[in-house]
Amino acid sequence: MKCLLHIGTEKTGTTSLQAFLVENSAVLSDEGIHVCKSAGAGNNRAIPAAFLTIAKEDDYICSKNFSNIEQRKAWCESTLEDLTKEIDQARAYAHTFVISSEHFHSRLQSDSEVQELAARLAPLFDQIDVVCYLRRQDKLAMSRYNQMLRAGRTPGGLLPQGMHLETGGLPSSYDYYSLLQRWTCAFGKSSVKVRIYDKRCLIDGDIIEDFLASNEIVVNRNKLEFPASFNRGLSAQAQVLLLNINKQVIDNPTEHLQQLRRHLTEFLNASAAGKSAQPSAQEAKNYYSYFVNSNRAVAREWLDREDLFDETFAEYPEHPTAPPLEACLHLLLDFIMQYPGFPGEGLS
């Protein structure tokens, strides 16, 4: 049985792809493709968490409220035992076992973590294909800006500032060469499948279609259900409102303000998708320049070409864009009028 190990990266349509896999798991199962369930529905996050070095913690591990290291180790082993049982059961009818989590990319940052994962999975499968989608770093940064706003943070700008280390190193989430080296050393170069997350590069311009076709997953399309889009970009005015309330909550973290922020975030996610604020073309190009050498090394070693991404920046304006104050005020008024307790439509 083959394993498709989808490792992300983050902000490359993983939520939509995982929702598709969950929604169509029965149809896929009929075709011999098993979608992992024991490690979490959709995002099989428990697996990367189980291989996170014991000295490290992330939000997922913290949510487990382990009282000591031994309890955490027991959970890790139990998680992997459940995964092994699921694989053994699937082998009776499936030719492909799909594991998906963008947290493989963002959490397993050391060679040893990935090598331990490989050592655990290798005896369970005849073949393992590591599927990795890469997004141009300036576009990734702007998508993560929205993610940080939704999480209550106050990023300093659309593109991270001061992130290029004086030592010449790159931030781990943006350093694709180190990422692929880490996974290649553990699984072998022929096992690492690099895909480019760009509508012009994806098959039919879609992450789901690309994942199915590039991994030779053939299913009767009439039986498939395709989910709505997830994590749509916030409009520029929505970004302004979230940034400012996040600042207020950080300065004065009362329960009332936190509740207000939660309601505003939900409202904006549902009602304020649109074109986000944009840096200038020159700002985006300057930011991207940090990654050119690393990206070209990736292109040569994994794709046998010179350029990893389309390096034109024509989609950006000549000058940075910001929403007019009037548009922000209109959006704020829309929120106030539906807010619970407001005299009118917001009452329920």
User: In what order do the strands lie side by side in the largest sheet?
Assistant: 2-3-1-4-5
**Major sheet description:** 5 strands, parallel
Distance between the termini: 53 Å
How would you sum up the global shape? globular
Summarize the model shown.
With 348 residues, the chain is of the alpha/beta class. 47% of the residues lie in helices and 7% in strands.
Structure overview:
By secondary structure, this protein is of the alpha/beta class. The chain contains 15 helices and 5 strands. Helix 7 (111-121) packs parallel to helix 9, helix 9 packs parallel to helix 14 (292-302) and helix 11 crosses helix 15 (325-338). The longest helix has 22 residues, at 69-90.
Defining traits:
single chain, 348 residues, alpha/beta, 5-stranded parallel β-sheet, 15 helices, 47% helix, globular
Outline the fold blueprint.
Blueprint: E1 2-6, H1 14-23, H2 25-30, E2 33-35, H3 46-50, H4 59-63, H5 69-90, E3 96-100, H6 103-107, H7 111-121, E4 127-134, H8 137-150, H9 176-187, E5 192-196, H10 207-214, H11 236-251, H12 255-271, H13 281-288, H14 292-302, H15 325-338
Parallel strand pairs: 1-3, 1-4, 2-3, 4-5
